[in-house]
């Protein structure tokens, strides 16, 4: 299965523009960052007619910046990325081992400024809701094969993340309020909660 085998809805077309073109159209930013939020949406059963959707959270490694904080897959755009959405697909694959099949919607946009000794970083992060092939029962490279408990097949990059969990909206919201079991940054937490609204 080719990495390019993913779809993007028409209303997100601007994020498929060549990265150089997108950068030129947004000169107010020096750094472009993306995030891809992946959900597990169990099929209703007789015993559980309304199963809870859960989002994939990754814990930042102790050797990385913001150690111990939880987040969705994501990172900075690279020169080799064809577009913003291509960067999302790459980051999700690199940080979770999962393969994006569809970029569903833009969840939110986060901006920040960071002062460095040699420059002023003006960053923007685009949080997207995505779907993955594994959730549909496909194994990339072996199309048509059924995967059981695909949620357990997350593959981490140890130097960046050291644990993963699938968590529901109540715990994510509690963690955002400082009452839960996960450390999350405020903007990250708000976008996680907002994404739950989109999958309902």
TrEMBL record:
Source domain of life: Eukaryota
Keyword hit for DNA repair: no
GO molecular function, one term: hydrolase activity
InterPro entries: NUDIX_hydrolase-like_dom_sf, NUDIX_hydrolase_dom
PANTHER family tied to this protein: ADP-RIBOSE PYROPHOSPHATASE, DIHYDRONEOPTERIN TRIPHOSPHATE DIPHOSPHATASE
Organism, as annotated: Aspergillus avenaceus
Keyword Hydrolase: yes
Keywords of the record: Hydrolase
Domain (Nudix hydrolase) ranges: 29-190
Name of one Pfam family that matches: NUDIX
Name this polypeptide is given: NUDIX hydrolase domain-like protein
Cross-referenced SUPFAM superfamilies: Nudix
């Amino acid at each position: 299965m080719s990495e390019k085998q993913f779809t993007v809805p028409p209303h997100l077309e601007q994020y498929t523009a060549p990265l150089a073109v997108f950068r030129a159209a947004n000169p107010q930013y020096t750094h472009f960052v993306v995030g891809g939020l992946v959900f597990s949406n169990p099929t209703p059963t007789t015993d559980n007619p309304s199963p809870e959707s859960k989002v994939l959270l990754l814990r930042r490694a102790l050797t990385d910046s913001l150690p111990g904080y939880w987040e969705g897959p994501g990172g900075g755009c690279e020169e080799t990325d064809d577009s913003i959405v291509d960067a999302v697909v790459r980051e999700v694959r690199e940080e979770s081992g999962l393969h994006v099949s569809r970029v569903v919607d833009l969840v939110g946009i986060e901006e920040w400024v960071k002062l460095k000794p040699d420059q002023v970083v003006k960053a923007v992060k685009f949080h997207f809701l995505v779907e993955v092939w594994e959730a549909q029962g496909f194994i990339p490279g072996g199309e048509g094969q059924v995967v059981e408990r695909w949620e357990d097949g997350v593959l981490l990059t140890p130097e960046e993340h050291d644990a993963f969990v699938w968590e529901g909206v109540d715990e994510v919201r509690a963690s955002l309020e400082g009452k839960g079991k996960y450390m999350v940054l405020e903007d990250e937490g708000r976008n996680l909660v907002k994404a739950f609204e989109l999958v309902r």
